[in-house]
Input
Amino acid sequence: MEIKKICVLGAGLMGHGIAQVCAQGGFEVTLEDIKEEFLQKGLDRIKKFLDGSVARGKTTQEEAEAVLGRITTATSLEEAAGDADLVMEAIVENMEIKKETFRQLDKICPEHTIFATNTSYQSVTEIATATNRPDRFMGMHWFNPPQVMRGIEVVKTERTSPETVAIITSLCQQLGKEPAICHDSPGFIANRLLQAWRTEGLRLYDENVASFQDIDKALKTAYGFRMGPFELADLAGMDVVMAGNETMYNELRSDVFKPPRCLVMKFRAGELGRKTGKGFYEYK
Ligand SMILES: NC(=O)c1ccc[n+]([C@@H]2O[C@H](COP(=O)([O-])OP(=O)(O)OC[C@H]3O[C@@H](n4cnc5c(N)ncnc54)[C@H](O)[C@@H]3O)[C@@H](O)[C@H]2O)c1
Output
């Protein structure tokens, strides 16, 4: 099956970037969100990114306009996904909302349409149960920002067909991305590894082995990491990090992911990181 029309659900941090990458790849894209203002915000972010690319000579004005011209928007699922070959979901990280959305899509979309979820921590296998097409359902886990990060995890369940995996893997390559194929498992590959080393870094601080600044410094200067665990927690937000730790801890029943005390305290104090101006570090 050839993918021509792509529908992206959710125009937020991930969805707007995914829609842009698909349009840059030459696909017709419909971006859907629950409110017109969220769609406008997503489109504004895409325009800003493209303007920057034109200014830096990475793309031409004509190409930027052509990319924008391939993106349409909608606030109804019927309008957005009714004739899509692929629906990529990047809405709020909530199991019930994701399942309800796919339940509706299953009725709206043609039989051949493939469904992909960008969930970070929820079970792809469970989301797929909301549909009657588990063979055409999988995870496509993009990284932030989608326009820049090269990797995509292609997540298959026990029931995803080899044909669906092949179509999505080939699409990733067409979009200039590097697919890494894995089975459905909490945190997939990259987030599970990231969560493990970040948690251990925070635990060093709980144990008073070093200041958080020195823990960040050691990792960056010793191994060339671009950020240490505390800088990374501030960037992602304590609420997001906590949710990740708790999901992995409960799902995998492993103390490796037990939320460290310093994380719990920052979360409870509302010092969430960059987004609140203060996390482990302070931001002006
Ligand atoms: N933020 C990241 O770094 C990152 C990385 C990889 C994957 N993800 C995953 O991508 C998904 C989206 O995350 P995000 O960071 O872009 O969130 P976000 O909050 O920035 O955007 C979510 C968007 O979905 C919209 N939305 C909510 N319910 C909807 C519905 N029923 N139908 C259509 N739109 C709806 C919201 O209005 C919002 O615009 C989540 O599942 C998240 O776990 C996030």
About this structure: The longest strand covers residues 137-142. The beta strands are 5-9, 28-32, 71-74, 86-89, 114-117, 137-142, 151-156, 178-183. The chain is about 50% helix and 15% strand.
